[in-house]
Write a structure and sequence with these properties.
By secondary structure, this protein is of the alpha/beta class. The protein has helices at 10-47, 164-167, 202-232, and strands spanning 53-54, 64-71, 77-84, 87-98, 103-113, 130-138, 157-159, 174-182. It is built from three helices and eight strands, in the order H-E-E-E-E-E-E-E-H-E-H.
Length: 233
Amino acid sequence: MNFKKFNPGKKITVFFIVFATTFFLLGLWQVERGHEKSNLIEQFNSNITKTPKSISEESSKWDRVIVKGVWKGSKQILIDNVISSGIAGYKVLTPLQINETETYILVDRGWISQGKSRDTLPGIDIKDEYVEVNGILEDPELGFVLSEDLVTDNWPKVSQTKNLDVLRKEFDEQLSSYILVADPTLKSSLAYIKIVPSNMTAEKHFGYAIQWFTMFIALCLMYLWIGFKKNEE
């Protein structure tokens, strides 16, 4: 190969460097994200099979725990736009004051149908009684939101997100750093929706990585073709 004949020009070279670097780095990022998701799902699958332990300061995301305390039914939150089997509804979060502490933890009691009208909230009343709740700790991300007005004013409140940074602003009480997704065996549980630790699987990330690397290779081949073709002309 005679590289002296290779002359794609400065503009083409700058274009190639910028986009080839971008495609390659995006491919590496997707590979990294894929490994992160793989480790996350592996950790989640391992934790859900463990025997629950009493919640403590050492408890972390996806741990199975036992929490004892008293419900506070007057300050419940409904998470809007949750679809189950094609039906619109809400996830119900109920504060539970952790036994012998001043801290509350929001317990995800499950899903309830929206009903015929959004103007009338479904019945979610619960007695302020002492209970023992088994479940899995989660810390939901904020996700994509279209408005800053995420939570309604009156109790029970309707929220567009399950993110704790948003929800804790609605409480005077101290909240735990996690939400407890209650097991379906809870007496006051609603319809249970299986926990999905990630909205995107590791395989999808690796698939996107292949697409970016394919675009990188295609751009390299085009750059070589243009460089030699231009010199021939």
